[in-house]
Amino acid sequence: KKMKNKFNILDCTLRDGGYYNNWDFSTDLVNDYLKTMSLIGVDYVELGFRSFQTKDFKGPTWYTTDSYLESLSIPKNLIVGVMVNVSELISHPSGFAKATRLMFAKAKKSKVKLVRLACHFEEFNQAAKVGKILQKLGYFVTINLMQISEQSEEKIISIAKMAKKNPPNVLYFADSLGGMGSNQISNIVAAFRRHWHGALGIHTHNNLNNAVANSLSALDLGVTWLDSTVTGMGRGPGNAQTEYLLIELQNTKKNKLDILPLLKLIKKYFEPMLKKYKWGTNPYYYLAGKYGIHPTYIQSMIVGNFDNEEILGTIDQLKHGEGRRYNIGLVRSDFQKPMKLTEGNWLPSKKIKNKKVLILASGPKAIDYKNELEKYIKLKKPFVIALNTTVSINEKLIDVFAACHPLRLIADANLYKSLTSPLVVPISFLSHSLKKKFKNLKLLDFGIGIKENHFEFHKSGAVVPRLYALAYALSIATSGGASKILLAGFDGFGIHDRRTKTIDELLALYSSFKSAKPVVAVTPTSYSVDSTSIYAL
Fold first, then answer.
1. CA dist 537 → 356, 372, 522, 532, 534 (Å)
2. Is the whole model's pTM more than 0.85, yes or no?
């Protein structure tokens, strides 16, 4: 379809926004959204991904199947697209050509008309070949190059040459780290234009609050495809906001735009979601954009309940070069890559056997019961494991501190240095620079492995379902043969917070294992766990 105007807005809210709710949008929301897009003059929507992956629950806009699209009311004037991660097609056992035809029927038989192929630079050649197959099936194809800001001018020019050989309908570039300014956009466009004279598109991220401004700069430079999402909903700091982009571009459209339907949609669905998931830029994403740190590190820490000092500490460490490439090892907790157990050499049973173990977190309530907790420790002598350096009781009463999340270790590196109690840690996780930092610290090596929905307790290590300090501490207590586990300072986040749900699931899973010890909270908590009072012990 030829565009009425010189530029196209592609709204990808339900694809990019799905990172927050597992692509599980209600049918009512999706139908209202589609109707609204058609009313406000957006011509293209990317409704979701299309994927072969089946691990973990994902909602309908992760798969965006043809049968799902049949169940929606799609307005006639709207063109629907999906995004595919090219790596899925390239790594498919039957080869990318077969995989592409497995994933897509002929366009005539589908409500999908546009397919966007997301690829890294080294995958471009194969992505272009996949694009050719899709064009033969009748689709409009765009190729989206990720992490453009990381590439040299030569690399961009070589991509432009390759694109000329197997031309997609649109060549897109994404500011994945969210740190680009108009000069950089200008240089990138100039490099593409050496050989590529077809349509260009841009996908901006909002780390520095520049996503809309960068989209408009690109438009001035002849980029004719602009991505946006409603309220900027998208991974990490989010994207150019559709509502702001439309206001800015109002004058370039022949007919006057009415954004009222969009504001109603936002009020009804997106404001409540924004309260819950808190996307959009903040000082951490802003710093990450400035230092070229991958935004997923920030998102991982926000989801992992890191506190302000820890996030700033991590940014400070990552800006020295480790943070540009997204290192899955550092944020394994986010993606939960299974990992074989590497046993350590510390045996907790020597200290813990038949003792009670008190696990201390830094919830504000622990301060209220500080005196009572200290009295209990002096009198009953449980083995005390602290999960953060910020716990409120006297450090002399803490037997060990415990930490296992690589990002948290980076974040708290300077705080750990001053500890007088030992730190229990999976030493196999420590980078060379962290080992150097910790050289004066007494480290006890208790190993760790990761397996979904699983605990396994060995003499000097354990397999945990997630890299949470609580899972690690429960394992230390269990491997050590504790008689009972007491929790203090685990206030929780209120019953409706998903972080509470995550810990509840973890505690329930732990209790389901035969070797699990009884777990009891001794200070007020909103977690679903047996509780008593520190005063009753």
1. 12, 10, 8, 8, 6
2. no
Output the CA–CA distances (angstroms, integers) from residue 271 to 29, 32, 45, 524, in the order listed. Answer: 13, 15, 20, 32
| pLDDT confidence of residue 497 | 75
Residue 391 half-sphere exposure, CB side, CA atoms within 13 Å?
Answer: 31
Region 422-430 average pLDDT: 91
Pick the most confident of 295-299, 397-401, 404-408, 463-467: 397-401
Strand 461-464 relative to strand 456-458, pairing: antiparallel
CB atoms within 10 A of CB 305: 13
* Chain centroid offset of residue 221 CA: 32
Q: Are 489 and 360 in contact (CB under 8 A)?
A: yes
Listing DSSP states for 352-370 in one string gives HTT-EEEEE---THHHHTH
**Which has the closest alpha carbon to 118: 140, 144, 99, 96?**
144
**Beta strand extents in 148-292 (DSSP E only):** 170-174, 199-203, 225-228
Query: In which residue are the tokens 């009295």 written?
Result: 375
Q: CB of 189 within 8 A of CB of 225?
A: no
For residue range 372-392, list pLDDT tens digits in order: 999 999 999 999 999 978 788
| Separation of alpha carbons 23 and 7, rounded Å | 28
**Rounded to whole angstroms, how far apart are CA atoms 294 and 324?**
6
Residue 84, both tokens: 């595919």
For strands 225-228 and 8-11, give the pairing: parallel
**All residues at 6 or more sequence positions from 388 whose CB lies less than 8 Å from its CB, including other chains:** 361, 362, 401, 412, 469
Q: What are the pLDDT digits (tens) for 338-349?
A: 788 999 999 999
The answer to whether 68 and 31 have CB atoms below 8 angstroms apart is no
Percent of the chain predicted with pLDDT > 90: 71
Query: From CA 388, how far away is CA 362, in angstroms rounded?
Result: 7
Cβ–Cβ under 8 Å, residues 53 and 88: yes
How far is the C-alpha of 23 from the C-alpha of 9, rounded, in Å? Answer: 21
For residue 383, the cross-strand partners are 357
β-sheet bridge partners, residue 385: 359, 400
